[in-house]
Amino acid sequence: MTVSERAHELAIAAAQAAADKKAQDIVIIDVGDQLAITDAFVLAAASNERQVLAIVDAIEEALLNLPDKAKPIRREGERGGRWVLLDYVDIVVHVQHTEEREFYALDRLWKDCPTIPFVDRDLARAEAAAGSGE
Length: 134
Hints:
five-stranded mixed sheet; 5 strands; 40% helix; Ribosomal silencing factor RsfS; NT_sf
């Protein structure tokens, strides 16, 4: 089972919103074959609690602004700002402080699951401009 079209749309939008707020180590993992409760995990890291919360806010705003709006059914961990989980049913977003990201290593835990390619659009534009000699 691969991710649904809706889950893919949400995951890419969430990842881009995280990238826009300078999140690090953004990964989308297709967990649909392993979990019945969601299709994908979006993982992102930030170097401090304030940035974690800014990334979370940006993701929520971006998904609300999609043509088919999405709101999380659950939001956990906001108070500490070290690991915030946003559950959109089709996807679950984990925004973690860098230390939590390294310690809990969700990437390693789900290493047998395929990843969904994501390239930050700003990075892609910069590389395209560099390649064209601009």
